[in-house]
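Thread: 23S rRNA (Uracil-C(5))-methyltransferase RlmCD, structure

OP (GT): Posting the sequence first so everyone is looking at the same thing. Length is 265 residues per the record. Can we get the structure tokens written out before standup tomorrow? I want them in the notebook alongside the other entries.
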Amino acid sequence: MRRRIPQEKKFISDIAVIDIAEEGKGVGKTDELVLFIDKAIPGDIVDVELIKKKKNFAEAKVAALKKASEYRIDPFCEHFGVCGGCKWQHMDYNGQLKFKQQTVDNVLARIGKVDTSIMEPILGSGETEYYRNKLEYTFSNKRWLTSVDDANEGLEMNALGFHVPGRFDKILDIDHCYLQQNPSNAIRNQIRAFAIEHQISFYDLREHAGALRNLIIRTASTGELMVIVVFAYPEEGQVELLMNYINSSFPDIDSLLYIINQKKK
């Protein structure tokens, strides 16, 4: 049961973050509660604001960073913190490996009763940027507005990007994503611009209306490139118009497909 947090107990000072949890949260403790703190990392000393509280634990966010962890770094992506795609960009990669290994070790030993004394270290990736071979983007006519966006009057509300965590109907418009190598960014940005220019409607996730629904880009280890455009309710001629544009603008695409998907789920 969710408990209403009295104002005088909503803020807690000088919490030492000691571990990581799921969804980009750090773990801290008080005498009464285990705290799951959004975007805190082990080694941080923080003041926190409680967001949700239950009997033995609470969710919180950082109200003030008193002391930064040795693992804390500046995230390289402008969308970090709003986009749900990357959770640990503010922690250096060696730190990520260390605490993920610690988490696996703890789960196997404590819950599974497995002897982890012979467990080998995690084999880290050689790449921490542009390593994904597939991304799926969502079109939406209800762009998620950031604090920077709020200052811009007349902002374009159509978006092509990723879901904001916890909001199925709100899409963060992505300018540059570091998950997939080029021409992924160019394809996404040019498709968005072309659709807006030619008034091809973006999907309304609540009303289930609009022409453009999803964009899937796959880059194979062989160097081959696949692009799939998912339409919902296109007007006559819009499918051919957009697909011809993509084909002529990106001749290196090996497989160019479209799908009509009008399912509401």
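GT: Both are above now. Quick notes for whoever picks this up: The mean pLDDT is 91. Residues 93-111 form the longest helix (19 residues).
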